[in-house]
Structure formats: C-alpha cells, structure tokens
Amino acid sequence: MKKAIILCLSILLQVFIVSGCANRIMYKGDYPFKETDWIRNGEPIMFEDEAWYPTDDIENLLDSEVILIGQYRQALFYIEKRDVKPINRIYTKFDYHKYRVFLRME
To answer: What's the pTM value of the predicted model, to 2 decimals?
Structure first.
C-alpha cells in the first residue's frame, strides 16, 4: 500500500513539474504583443521635443533592467535603469526580453 501511494505521489510530482516547464516555454515563444506598423516603417517617437528614430539594433534586456518613461501612439518606451541624462537611447519592447533601440538623429 505504501509503495502505491509513493508511486502515485511521484507521478503527480512529475506531472506538475512538466506542466510548469511547458507553460514557461510556451510564453517565451509566444510574446503577446506585436510591434506597431509605424515603428516598422521607421517613423520616430517624439520625446523631450526631439525625434527618436528606430534602428535595426536590438538589446536583450530583462524587464527589471528598464524603466517605463512614456507612451507615444500606443507604444510604451523605456530607458535603462542605469542611464542618466542626457539620454542617448530609448527602447520599445517587441518580444520576450527584446527591445528595439531608438536614437536621436541630428
């Protein structure tokens, strides 16, 4: 009887472990947001009276490494927590831990 209980508990534990890992893997490959068309078309974000243009550069950043500083045309934009003024780059998030770089064009 004890062996049957231990077997059932071990099977249950394995099911919970596998199902938890499966959910995490699905989230990584299926980021719920789509980058807006105006960004993909190269249109700028207006921030601090300056135009910031999207680049092809991508940064891999954790959410804990950035701070939300604004919203422009339904797109949230961020800076890195370690940045100080003058700000040299801003970011929009478009995938799991992936941020598009925006630069000022002078």
So the answer is: 0.69
